[in-house]
Amino acid sequence: MDPVRRIFIASIEPLALLMHPRRYRKATSLSPENSYTKAGQNSELNSVRHSSSSFEMLTGFSSRASLGLCILFIASPGLVAQHSPHSSDQSSSAISTEPPSVPVGQIVQHFAEREAEFKRERDNYTYTQTFVVQTIDSSGQPDGEYRMTSDIVFSTTGKRYDKVIYAPPSTLQRVSLSEQDFADLQNVQPFVLTTNELPKYDINYVGRQRVDELSTYVFEVKPKKIEKNQRYFQGRIWVDEKDLEIVKTYGKAVPDILKRNEENFFPRFETYRENIEGHYWFPTYTHADDILHFSSGDIRIRMTVRYKDYKRFRVTSRILLPGEAEEVKP
Question: Of 46, 79, 185, 307, which one has the fewest beta carbons inside 10 Å?
Answer without folding.
Answer: 46
